[in-house]
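ARCHIVE CARD
Drawer: 12
Card no.: 0347
Subject: one protein chain, sequence and derived structure
Cross-reference: see card 0346
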Amino acid sequence: MPPKKSKAKVARKLVATQAQFAALESRLAALDKEYAAVQAAAGQLVAELLKGAAAKAKTASSTTTRTQKVQVGKKVASTKGKPGRKPGVRVGKKVAAAKGKPGPKPGTRAGTKATAAKAKPGSKPKVQVTRKSTAPRQTVESVVISLLKANKKPMAFTEIMATIQKKKLIKTKSTNFANVLRRTISTSSKIKRVARGTYRA
């Protein structure tokens, strides 16, 4: 008798689990349908948003091109309608000078006198000041080359150093000017080495 009862219990449990499995399968199918519907709705929304963005971009581009055309047309109309001086032509005294009237050149004494005479009383005449051309800055290499060319004979390094210090040809704040001079002479392409410690230009 006990084995029959245990078999009945197992059969009941099996039926119950099969019913639960069937319910879960039906629930899963319903969820799959809902998920497919959500995906379709999302795709439609994305497509509508893309269409709206494309339409806005087209309208914006058309409005910008229209406004540019209108502005250009207005500028052309204003230039055609309003009378004015021709482009590239200077007005006043410069036009008279360009037409061939003789006059003093700017920067000369006659020019400054003429401008002073034409200026209003009480106003100071403008005087053009010419800047003095600054002499090119001497370098250690240029000083050594000029010294060698002036001597017309090869000079030793100690002689070059002594001549520069004696005549004060170079102003320097270097604590080891001999090293600077030696490096300049050795790296220069214009100063040639005749013998050890002797150089010519």
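Annotation on reverse: The mean pLDDT is 75. The longest helix spans residues 2-81.
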